[in-house]
Amino acid sequence: MRSRIGAVRATRPCRVATFIALIAATSASAASADDESPAATPYRPSVSTPAALSAPGWLEIEAGATHARAADPARRDSIPYTLKLAFSDDWGVRIGGDAWVRQRDAAGAHSSGGGDTAVVLKRRFAVSDSSAFGLEAGVNLPTARSGLGSDKADWSLNGIYSADSGPWHTDLNLVATRVGAIDPGTGRGQLLWAASLSRALDDRWGLVGEFSGTRQRGVEGSAQFLAAASYNVSKSLALDAGLARSLRSGREWSAFAGLTMLVARLF
């Protein structure tokens, strides 16, 4: 983080106010254009992603804020974003990452800046009207300054299964990643698994619960539980907020909030 900690903290209310103003403005515009646009397809706030793509030809944006806290003095604040564009019901691409990161490590050192950038190509395989498989191939590019992201590119392949059953929806993900920068004695391959179950309470409100974790040789495995709520302001705008907590250490947790919005039709 920056050495001018006081200056960084002083700007945080401005960022929060700007984020709230953005939500208010986009809520009004989305509500007015609701009859003319398709429905948004949120991927956030869960770790897993669905097999479905966003509306073909429409640029969809996801953005939010996350605060993570570990058992030691380590802290991390970030502003994640994702740009999604589907070419058809079965093909699409997305670009995402952290627009800004501010963290404090276990030794108390501070750093801040932009994060890494991920580029993902997605293919959907429909099984029926209520279920589908998905496949994502992606690369995480080391665009962050040292210490805020990966120092080398990470390549990944994600297998997805999604299904609907009445008001319930489930997403199962298994991600294999070839890690570019590894420590001595650790494996280059990493597996991430995630299983989420969500339910629509009515036309506006929804809930999601998810278990996820990682495995990598020479690295202690991780596991967490996530719970969140979502609110559909309109067809084209959805808000979300929730908490995630480590199942290995009860003092490691994160809180987050954000939005998913259809922005404009490109073709």
What can you see in these coordinates?
- The structure is a single chain.
- The protein is mostly beta strands.
- It has a single domain, classed as monomeric porin ompg (Porin), CATH 2.40.160.
- Helix content is 10%, strand content 57%.
- It has 1 helix and 13 strands.
- The protein has a 12-stranded antiparallel barrel with strand order 1-2-3-5-6-7-8-9-10-11-12-13.
- A hairpin with a 2-residue loop joins strand 5 (117-128) and strand 6 (131-141).
- The longest helix is centred in the N-terminal third of the chain and has 28 residues, at 5-32.
- It is globular, with a radius of gyration of 19 Å.
- The chain starts with a helix and ends with a strand.
Taken together, the total number of domains comes to 1
Low-confidence stretches: 1-14
> What order do the SSEs take from the amino end to the carboxyl end, as H and E?
HEEEEEEEEEEEEE
Approximate strand percentage: over 45%
Q: Helical content, roughly?
A: 10-25%
Shape: globular
**In CATH, what is the class?**
Mainly Beta
CATH fold topology: Porin
Compute the average pLDDT: 89
CATH architecture: Beta Barrel
How many strand elements?
Answer: 13
Q: Based on the structure, what is the oligomeric state of the protein chains?
A: single chain
The CATH homologous superfamily is called monomeric porin ompg
Strand order in the largest sheet: 1-2-3-5-6-7-8-9-10-11-12-13
Count of DSSP-assigned helices: 1
What structural class is derived from the secondary structure elements?
mainly beta
C-alpha-based Rg, rounded:
19 Å
Q: How does the SSE layout of this entry go?
A:
Elements (H helix, E strand, L loop, with lengths): L4 H28 L25 E12 L5 E12 L4 E14 L5 E4 L3 E12 L2 E11 L12 E12 L2 E11 L10 E12 L4 E12 L2 E16 L2 E10 L6 E13 L2
Antiparallel strand pairs: 1-2, 1-13, 2-3, 3-4, 3-5, 5-6, 6-7, 7-8, 8-9, 9-10, 10-11, 11-12, 12-13
